[in-house]
Predict the structure.
Amino acid sequence: MDNSNRTVIVTGFEPFGEHTVNASWVAVQELKKLGLGSNVDLHVYEVPVEYQKVQSLVPSLWKQYHPRLVVHVGVSGMATTVTLEKCGRNHGYKCLDNSSFCPDSQCCIVGGPDCINSVIDMESVCKRVTASGLRVAVSVSKDAGRYLCDFTYYTSLYLSQGRSAFIHVPPLGKPYSGEGLGRALQAIIQEMLELLEQAEEKIHCQQHIH
């Protein structure tokens, strides 16, 4: 594996609205303490809840690190489980961000596809993590909510041909602690990397057959 392939970037969001402490960033900082194993270079970033800042930050992370995988983590006041998002959507961004801005086009990438799926099979990740006896409930969703979470996810999926993931976490204490969420992120992202590796080996084998 070359060095760039060992890099994983995980982001959380800054506080917004009623989330004066953002559980996603707390969880990501806990994950940073735990790490993803000695063969993974983990970098974490706190993402501003602002459309224009996301539009410059996300491409710069892909350009700077050429990561194997980027995982964005966000909080959802409605979530009661740790939720794996299958896809990002391009249209419908009407809610104002922390700087009271929303894109005129109400979309992420003008002319981009309506929806982009992650290359990672979130159902498999969910099953495997659940079977591992993690004491945190995990579920899968097809709607990341048309706010900064969805916007960030779509932007990353677009730039990486789907080599991104998004995880929604519930607010702290509803019911999980920051530490519990950090452990859940660790287990989930390790499964994602495992699946990514298997998928690549399969592609590699197929290339040799033809």
Observations:
- The first strand starts at residue 7 and ends at 13.
- The mean pLDDT is 94.
- Residues 50 and 97 are 5 Å apart (CA to CA).
